[in-house]
Every structure is written in C-alpha cells, then in structure tokens.
Design goal:
mainly beta, 93 residues, single chain
C-alpha cells in the first residue's frame, strides 16, 4: 500500500513499551468501545499471525486548516486509532 492510499494508523497498545501500528485506509470511523478485526497483509507476508482482534480505546484526529493566502491547500484529515487486543470469538469468518 503506498502512502497516498492510507488515511489512518491503528496503534495496538501492548503491555510492553513497544507499540505496533498499521497503516490502513478507513471507509468508516470506529468509535471508542467498538470491536474491530484487523487483517494485516504485511504480517501475512512475514508469516506472523495476521488476524488482530481489537477494541478501540481512543480515536485521535490530526487536522490541518485550509490556507489559501500563500497557495497551500491544507485541509488534511488523518486519524490515529489506539486499540487493545481482546480475546473475542471470530464472528466474521
């Protein structure tokens, strides 16, 4: 996935201090408390477990205002989703 095709990061909060994040293209915006299932093609190619069942803890928006005065367009919107791993049944397969 090239950088122009993603609009969000999903950050998985780990018990260790090393958090993992995935670049994703969102079609909808999950809210705190929602359960999501992330399938990582990067993990799949690397032969790591590719299914991640998560619960959204927090959604952060990074927004840039529109600046027309100096020719910059701006108006960008990027989302960061912080989520924790959960042990829930696989209901989507």
């Amino acid at each position: 996935m090239n950088t122009s095709s993603y609009n969000a990061n999903i950050v998985i909060i780990e018990e260790s201090e090393t958090n993992v994040y995935y670049q994703v293209a969102l079609q909808f915006l999950p809210h705190a408390g929602d359960f999501i299932e992330l399938t990582s093609l990067v993990d799949q190619e690397s032969e790591y477990p590719s299914k991640h069942r998560l619960q959204v803890d927090q959604v952060t928006h990074q927004i840039t205002d529109i600046q027309r005065k100096n020719g910059q367009s701006g108006g960008d919107h990027f989302v960061i989703i912080f989520a924790s791993r959960v042990d829930v049944p696989d209901v989507l397969s």
